[in-house]
Amino acid sequence: MNEKTQRVIAEVAAILSDARRVVVLTGAGASAESGVATFRDAQTGLWSRFDAQRLASQAGFRDDPGLVWGWYMHRLAMVEVAEPNPGHHALAALAGEVAALTLITQNVDDLHERAGSPHVLHLHGHIARFHCNECGAAYYLQPEDRVASLPPVCHLCNGYVRPSVVWFGEMLPDRVLTAAWRAAEQCDVFLVVGTSGIVYPAAQLPIVAHNHGAQVVEINTEPSMLSESVDYVLLGPSGQILPDVLAEVRSRRS
């Protein structure tokens, strides 16, 4: 780690230690470090022939429900074998070192929860949860569903079951988005971790925080659309940088 990065980490740890409310927004980069391919990067092998938007839209599900179901069972299997990385664990631990922390994620996996973070706000839903595409009733995945050629059908209306994720053209869950927006408005420090800053409305949250007086910190492997408008930028894997930030926060308390 170079001297500049060490200095920025120390400055970020200082503002975190003094903050009354901290918000963290994580994106695909955080999960990619655990081996979960980003949505478009996963378009390999069998899936390379298909447009990502067709595999994650109502139109695609209507045209070929079996194809979409197979894609999501493939994605679910990938998530289930992944393990939380040091960045996930550092964020879970950081919640115990600051006054209050709200964790918001664009990811549909449960890696934050498995690392020990409770009450995660999932903007884009959960890949391991399912509901009827017609009536909305919850559905619990059965072993045989994983290899079925078609999605299971709802026990109430016989509609096809789908994963409880947000598809292209769909609105984000209102309750979750409202909670995330309120947290951004009220925080003192906003951490942006592993996100490109191009997917809205999530990309607007750090801007909202900044406009309400928060200091915004970006942790990314490369500069993003947000880099020029944030207060601090730490370039590198979040699985390396976040544990260093955590260690610095803890050292200030000792």
In short:
With 254 residues, this protein is an alpha/beta fold. Helix content is 37%, strand content 17%. The protein has helices at residues 3-18, 28-32, 58-63, 65-81, 86-94, 111-115, 174-186, 205-211, 238-253, and strands spanning 22-26, 101-105, 121-122, 125-132, 138-139, 161-165, 189-193, 215-220, 232-235.
Characterize the structure shown:
- The protein has 254 residues and is α/β, with parallel strands linked by helices.
- The protein has helices at residues 3-18, 28-32, 58-63, 65-81, 86-94, 111-115, 174-186, 205-211, 238-253, and strands spanning 22-26, 101-105, 121-122, 125-132, 138-139, 161-165, 189-193, 215-220, 232-235.
- The strands form two sheets. A six-stranded parallel sheet has the order 3-2-1-7-8-9, with helices on both faces.
- Helix 5 (86-94) packs parallel to helix 9 and helix 7 (174-186) packs parallel to helix 8 (205-211).
- It is elongated, with a radius of gyration of 19 Å.
Q: Bin the strand percentage.
A: 15-25%
Q: Mind describing the biggest β-sheet?
A: 6 strands, parallel
Distance between the termini: 23 Å
Using the CA coordinates, give the radius of gyration. 19 Å
> Which segments are poorly predicted (pLDDT under 50) over 5 or more consecutive residues?
none
Structural class given helices, strands, pairing?
alpha/beta
Shape: elongated
Strand order of the largest sheet: 3-2-1-7-8-9
Number of domains: 2
CATH architecture name of the largest domain: 3-Layer(aba) Sandwich
- Counting DSSP H or I runs of 4 or more residues, the number of helices is 9
Q: The CATH topology of the largest domain, please? A: Rossmann fold
Helical residues, percent = 25-40%
